[in-house]
Amino acid sequence: MFISIDHLTKDFRGRPAALNDLTVDLPQGMIGLIGPNGAGKTTLMRILTGIIKPTKGKVFIDGQDLSSPANRRNLKRHLGYLPQHITPYDNLTPLEFLDYIGILKMIDNKHVRQEQAHTLLEQVGLEDVMNQPIGGLSGGMRRRVGIAQALMGGPQLLVVDEPTAGLDPEERMRFRTLLAQLGQDRTVILSTHILDDVAQTCPWVCVLRFGRKQYDGPTEGLIHEAAGHTWVTPPIAAPPDNATIINAEPTPQGTRYRIVTDTPPAGSVETAPNLEDGYMALASER
Amino acid sequence: MRLAFVGIQLKRLYRLVLLPFILTACILLAGLLLEGSWSPGRIRPVMMALTQVPVIAAGLSTAFVLNGDPIVELTESTPTGWRKVQVTRLLIITGAFLAAAGLLFIGLHLMRLWPRDQGWVSIITPVGSIFIVNCLVFLIAVLTMSMPTSSLASIAIWLFLCFIWDPYITDPVRQRLVPMIIAAAGAIFGWKICSDAERNVVKVAAL
């Protein structure tokens, strides 16, 4: 699915615009949506899922204008959505919950629903607990129930908001592998604060800040923003001025900082940037 | 409306759907037991109190059913939408309480124990009370999306009917018809508001 966003603005009463004249084209495949809190990521995803309507501007999905109620209804038939805060019903089993979501997605045939639910629960590694109440499952397992429900009906557009928040490293790894597989034959929009997840799975990235687009393009391009500006300092006592600190590694001689700056302290060594460096370089440009 | 959709909602609510029938059976049983030992004049005040229990239970059950769903946003992202879910739940719970209220009236009427019985037309009293309370609780639930507020509102509506309205309007039809029309208008207003997906999602997120 090809998504075209045209001069999109969303105002909420009494608050600054959540989205401000945003224009961006998103290709098929895995797309990372990143930005600080309040950048407008969740608002954009709610518009893309047809839940809320923009104040101004339009969204086209495969050329279909989402301002038309019929197109929004049609989109919802081919959409998978994992909201940031999803608490599946505790008293249902994963199998029953997926069946319920299948009904909401208007999959009328019971056998089709049950077959899909079984397959998806196997795909997310929940085959052993598919008949246990969700209330007894771990946080990671519940997130996996969440992603499985999003995949009911074989959606062509998958929108996932902070899917790996609160997961342990093993679960996170498994989750992003699954997302990367899913992105091979559909459009997946992944909103996250965990840049490593984007670096590992998304060839395309869109950065939002204050409701505006700050970057939109290949992930490599965003990394390149920090090329020639990423340095590792020698162990020093105080953090360097005029630099964005990416991380700090304590050593017996002092702290070694990874920084993005144009004016590194003496003795700093230039290093190859990663997505975090590129993102911070972009953030410091504003 | 599709059968599977109604079926799954019914499955979620079946305990609350059984509640009015259990209450009706208990009240009828109490009537039967008292009938043997007490005079009708002594039983009727007891029945007057007991017949209020299903009305209170209807309001509280409806407040419970219509609030606290953790997947409002997810439901709004599906072609079904949140309004259809809410309205289906309201119809199921109200239908169960109305049917049970009808049975309760028939039972007590035949035993000549229904308080202020004016013949079959008096069936409008219990049925109307439940209709009024549930329609207005639906409106409050849509407006506030809060279970405590909806529950308090259900009690307030019952108190109004029981202590302010009913003692002064004694004709059963007039007693129920006017508030039923107002409650139906309130429910239609709630139904219209409930179609606003943005409002539903933002309201839940703000709770």
From TrEMBL, chain A:
UniProt family annotation: Belongs to the ABC transporter superfamily.
Keyword terms, alphabetized: ATP-binding, Nucleotide-binding, Transport
Keyword ATP-binding on entry: yes
Record PROSITE patterns:
ABC_TRANSPORTER_1, ABC_TRANSPORTER_2
One MF term in GO for this entry? ATP binding
SMART domains with a match to the protein in the record: AAA (SM00382)
Q: What is this protein called?
A: ABC transporter
- Taxonomically, what lineage is the organism? Bacteria, Bacillati, Actinomycetota, Actinomycetes, Bifidobacteriales
Tell me which residues make up the ABC transporter domain. Answer: 3-235
For this protein, the record's Pfam families field holds:
ABC_tran
UniProtKB/TrEMBL annotation, chain B:
* Keywords, in A-Z order: Membrane, Transmembrane, Transmembrane helix
Could you list the residue ranges that cross the membrane?
Answer: 12-34, 46-66, 87-111, 123-145, 152-170, 176-194
Instruction: Write the lineage as a comma-separated list.
Output: Bacteria, Bacillati, Actinomycetota, Actinomycetes, Bifidobacteriales
Its protein name is Uncharacterized protein
Does the record's keyword annotation contain Transmembrane helix? Answer: yes
Organism superkingdom? Bacteria
